[in-house]
Amino acid sequence: MKLEPAFYHRKNVVTIARQLLGKVLITSIKGKVTSGMIVETEAYSWKERGCHAYNGRKTQRNEIMFDDGGRAYVYLCYGMHYLFNVVTNTSDIAEAVLIRAVEPLEGVDLMIKRRGDIPLHQLTSGPGKLTRALGIDRSWNGKVLWNDEVWIEDIDRKVPSRQCEVSKRIGIDYAGADANLPWRFSIRGNKWVSK
DNA sequence: TACGTGATCACG
DNA sequence: GTGATCACGTAA
Known about the structure:
CATH class: Alpha Beta
Number of strands: 8
Oligomer: single chain
């Protein structure tokens, strides 16, 4: 079942990041479907320095974070990788969940075509890799997640807390003390969690 | 550990 | 306009 707007409109981005583990991210491009189970996420909020919208800073790039929850925030990182986030909360409260890794489900052949002939466990094991594999790029910024191109489904697979690993977020050393917030969630032992 | 790569942002 | 920076991935 497709997650509905109300799922994303809730106020606690950290809870939403945790709950997205085990859900399925799906894209459909010209009738070709690719999907993967979400195995790693990170929460970002305007209240902390790791966030592009820290302290309410609004720019052309992150503008969509200030919109209603349930939209995609996609941006180019290091000049070559697109990173896919899910905007949460209501408008003007800039929060989002970065999808950092998925376990491939549908459309593996197409994902290999997009990513090159590499080992299966490297196909979608990072935020830049999974967007490439799922065919997501900058033009997807702002899309709502209840259309027929990109959405997230609940497959009724609960990730028990025993399997949920909590740690600090990756690659945000510039955030000072906020870099230590335990806002990264992953499925313990899953092969697709980024290294 | 190093670096490719180019949009973005803050500065003027 | 300009230059430093960057929520990464790959090879080594």
